[in-house]
Amino acid sequence: MKLNISRDARPQVRTLLIATVITLALWFIPYADILTYPFRIFVTFIHEGGHAIAALLTGNSVASLSVAMNTSGETYTTEGGLISQIFVSSAGYLGAMAYGALLLVLIRRAVAARIVLLSSAALILLLTIVYGLWKPLTYGLWGRLSLFTLVAGALISVGLVAVARYASARTASFFVSFLAVQCILNALLDLKTVFFLSSPFGAGVPTDAVNMANATGVPAIFWAIIWVGVALMILSTAMRVYAVSKHGASGKQQDLPFEEPLEV
After folding, report:
1. Are 144 and 63 in contact (CB under 8 A)?
2. What DSSP letter does each residue of 176-203 carry, written as one string?
3. Digitized pLDDT (tens) for each residue of the chain, 264 residues in all
4. Can you state the angle between helices 93-108 and 169-198, rounded to 10 degrees?
5. Reduced to 3 states, what is the DSSP secondary structure of residue 36?
6. Looking at the DSSP assignment, which residues form a beta bridge with residue 64?
7. From the CA atom positions of the chain, what is the Rg in Å?
8. Distance between CA atoms of 244 and 5, rounded to whole angstroms?
9. Sign of CA pseudo-dihedral 233, 27, 43, 21
10. Phi/psi at 205 (5° precision)
11. 10 Å Cβ neighbour count for 259?
């Protein structure tokens, strides 16, 4: 089925494409990954936060959440039943994809970029304080306290607040688009990695897919394929909402850096 980009969505689509091109270009420029490193840590927080939120929604408790300097992360929760374990294990990669998709939808529906940034800052700070600090102390899990998690979570939260407070509306809108692209592309990249690690030629590295295999007896490669499919469905739905609207978006984001002037 042919999809047409609605007229009022074209400036936003252009902004999204530019953010995507910048992201991909930085991946191939030597040493430029230092510029995207904070965003990668942000995505890891969202990934681990997805596990934590899924655990809470299924009646489990979260003992700790940590993010490492190499951008990996760990979240310890009570296991619960089989359905709970499936939901919790799936919520990492899919949670990062869903968060990026949500950012796209919010921008498309003209939610102020400053509100999106402040909400994201509050989420990261909450994950850092509650599950990075308070919960490990409560459970007596001193070994799972991570100084890097606390510092990174605080700095990312402060950075998001600073952009929301001091950046122009156009810059803030572009920053949200860039953040969405980072979540989506990194989620896809991580899913590609877990797919190959789950194959017969994988290195036997512990992953969420391996956790699913241990819980269900179904091979890890099956779960990796399912997650890739669901992630692409989430992305497809978000792009339809973002770029194609049968009746037009409910509002228009006027503060995009690459917006076309209105014709009179």
Report:
1. yes
2. HHHHHHHHHHHHHHHHHHHHHHHSTTS-
3. 455 566 655 666 677 777 788 877 877 787 777 888 999 999 999 999 999 999 999 999 999 999 999 999 999 998 888 899 999 999 999 999 999 999 988 887 778 899 999 999 999 999 999 999 999 998 887 878 899 999 999 999 999 999 999 999 889 988 998 999 999 999 999 999 999 888 877 666 788 898 898 888 899 999 999 999 999 999 888 877 776 654 544 444 544 544 444 343
4. 150
5. helix
6. 76
7. 19
8. 5
9. negative
10. -75, 135
11. 18
Distances in Å between the Cα of 120 and the Cα atoms of 41, 164, 255 are 13, 10, 20
Q: In the structure encoding, which two tokens stand for residue 152, read together?
A: 């990174």
Phi-psi region of 200 (alpha: psi -120 to 50; beta: other; left: phi over 0): alpha
Q: Which two tokens stand for residue 256?
A: 């995009």
**The tokens 């400036």 sit on which residue?**
11
